[in-house]
Amino acid sequence: MRRKIERSDTEWREQLTPEQYHVTREKGTERPFSGDHRVSDEHGIYHCVCCNAPLFENEHKFDAGCGWPSFDRPLVSSCIAEQPDTSHGMQRTEVTCARCDAHLGHVFPDGPPDTTGLRYCINSVAIQFHAGE
User: Fold this and answer.
1) Model pTM score
2) Closest by alpha carbon to 79, among 61, 97, 92?
3) DSSP code, position 13
4) pLDDT tens digit string along 49-66?
């Protein structure tokens, strides 16, 4: 993983759309089924919208029916960080980009039992697909 990216709020606001800023820098959530959550056979990698770090491989994306892109694992474990999230009266595990601390979503233990059993539920505005990688 490359060096840690740190920017001021002003710099992040200049780089990101208001929705991207809200989700990635203020730990927001996009509305379910509002982004690109469809599953395709196209080869590629999803990158962090904030720092372009590679995060998830399209081959590990699946339809969880939850309204957000779902993956059963990160590209490599070191590309993300996980921490407890007790906001909104729930106990969840938050997933952030290890390079820039962008909030990506949450991970749950209800993923495909034939693979990892995990569901990385990721906001589509927090990632960008790079086809062919």
Assistant:
1) 0.93
2) 97
3) H
4) 999 999 999 999 999 999
